Amino acid sequence: MATYHTRLSSTKIKLIRSLEHKKYRYQHRLFVVEGDKTVREILSSSLIVKCVLAKVGWLESLSGNLLTGIEDVFEVNDQELSQISFLKTPNQAVVLVQIPDDSLDMVGLISGLSLYLDRIQDPGNLGTIIRIADWFGIRQVLCGDGCADPYNPKTVQSTMGALIRVKTHSVDAAFFERLEVAYPGFPVYGTFLDGENIYRQQLSSQGIIVMGNESKGISGDIASHINKRLLIPSYPPGEPTSDSLNVATAAAIVCAEFRRRSVVV
């Protein structure tokens, strides 16, 4: 049964504020989730919530079983919320959630589509891509070296709860080498300006889709492992246009096309 507290200590405030930094998130194995709708989703999910901090009225609106198994529940006021919130306008509830196991199931990975993110550095872009993956039923997102942290408060906010359903994994530079040894010829897709028009290419229902850095695209070492080079064409062909697409926008276009091909009419 949860222990209720009516006073928020300076030690607890310091802990929560420290979770803005990756070092302390992984030291404590905790991340912060805020907002009425997302917090309710988190409480109803399989993720482990360690602590709830919320206004009295919000807590009273919850069904009792949502707080089952939670160690600590804090009743907080507006001033205390402003001290622990990472939002410009604090919402009614904040929860501390245990970072889930990061182990990667390769057999599960190759059974469907997944995303590999190559040095996606903006937390907002990363969160939006995770949300896009959720929308299109992609349950595995691999974060390569140089990526923003999936549990950064800005990333978490941008996912709008998608972290409940999408597993993220941090993988090292040797990931694709191991993949090629274990599963030779497994489809690895990436978008390039010299790629083949995505709307004219055969797309599989299993594979890894690589999305590259916001300004530099896919790095050379990762590009060397891509065996399916795609192009998102601009319209009309041959006309001047923007230099590139936002990486999250590109991810949405690519995921939508893969899923469009898999629809059975």
Explained architecture:
This protein is an alpha/beta fold. The protein has 11 helices and 11 strands. It has helices at residues 10-18, 22-28, 36-43, 56-61, 78-84, 106-109, 123-135, 153-159, 175-182, 220-223, 247-262; strands spanning 3-5, 30-34, 49-54, 72-75, 93-98, 113-117, 140-143, 167-170, 188-197, 207-211, 228-231. Strands 8-7-6-10-9-11 form a 6-stranded parallel sheet, with helices on one face. α7 links the parallel β6 (113-117) and β7 (140-143). α7 runs parallel beside α8. The protein is elongated and about 65 Å long. The mean pLDDT is 94.
Outline? elongated
Overall structural class, as computed from helix and strand content, comes to alpha/beta
**Helix/strand order, N-terminal first:** EHHEHEHEHEHEHEHEHEEHEH
- Helical run tally: 11
Distance between the termini: 50 Å
Q: Average pLDDT across residues?
A: 94
Low-confidence stretches: none
The proportion of residues in beta strands is 15-25%
Relative helix content: 25-40%
Order of strands side by side in the largest beta sheet? 8-7-6-10-9-11
Main beta sheet strand tally, sense and closure? 6 strands, parallel
Radius of gyration: 21 Å
What is the tally of beta strands? 11
